[in-house]
Each structure stands twice: as C-alpha cells, then as structure tokens.
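Render this sequence as a predicted structure.
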Amino acid sequence: MILLAFSAITLSATAQEKREIKGDRHGQHMGMRHERGMMAKQLNFSDDQKKQAKAIGEDFRKQMQDLNKKENITVKQQRDQKEALVKAKKAKMDALLTPEQKTKLAQLKADHKQKAEERYAKHLDKMKTSLGLSDDQVAQLKTQRQAIHDQFKAIKENENLSRTERKDKLMALRSEAKEQNKKIFTEDQLKKMEDMHKKHFDKQPAK
C-alpha cells in the first residue's frame, strides 16, 4: 500500500526468472512446463514448435545443472552466468515464433498491461476514499507512477548494465519512490497507511 507507484511494477525479474537464477530445480522444472504450456495454448503452437520448446527447456535445465556443479567460480560469476543462460533461453523461445504469433504475443502483453492499469485505477480510487486523498494528490501519484515505470523499463532494458548494477539501480529507484511518497502524502495519511498495512498482515494466517 505504501508504495502505490509500484502497485503494477515488479522490481525484479519474473518469479520464474528468479527461480532460474537462484537454481531452484523443482521451481525451474514446474515453471518451464507451465511457461511452455501457456505459450503453446495461447499462441497455438504446432507440434514441431512444442517439440522444439521442450528441447530448449531440457537443454537449459541441463546447462543450469552443470553450472551448479562448478566449484571453481565465485557466487557472483555463477549468478551472472545463470542470468546469461536465462536470456539465451528466452531468445531461443522468441525465435520459435512466427510473425503472426509474435503479433499475438504483443497483443496478449498489451491486454495484460490494460488489465493492470484497470486494477491500479480501482486501487487508487479505493485509497482516495480510505485516505481522503485530494485530486492533486491523485494526479501526483499518477505522474509519479508513470515516471518510475519509465525509469524501471529503461534500467531493465539497458544491456550495458551488469546484473549487480541493475539490481542496485532498481533498489535505488524503490528508495526514491518511498521518499517521493513522503512528499505527496500527509503525515496522518502515511500513519493511516502503516496501520492498514499492519492490520492486513496481522490477518494473514501463520505459516
């Protein structure tokens, strides 16, 4: 709640990508099967595409397993190499697609973005009511969210940044958003958000 500007933005790779880089073997296997299944269904893969996608996934998993066995490299080197393998796998999967499927995939992403925007609008309306936000505050939040989204995208797409540099910049961006929120919300509103946040987590069942 406190970071409204990040409601539709993730400051890391996708959950699947994080599992892959961390080396969660069970998560990798289940995630890749789900990923292939979703792509095959939504993009109407041919039998040949399904076979190639499966081969790419199996080859990727083997490379990750081999990398996990290496003991003569640092943790940073291993993580960097894993990230490179993830990118290579994504490139291979993208190369499987026909022009029509790429167009369909772009449309699916656009639809997903539109739904995210609608969820954010509803969330913002709810916060406006519960916190008594002014129209000016709402406008500032929308402007802030777009600016942060643009910066987030620029960082993620900057191929000149190392994995560590990208992570540091994303964390700095998150801190910047927190500081900006302190200037947008009143002290009473910030306190109320903290209370709402605490009550929300207090209601969560213990694991």
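Summary. DSSP finds eight helices and no strands in the chain. The chain has two domains: 15-97, 106-202.
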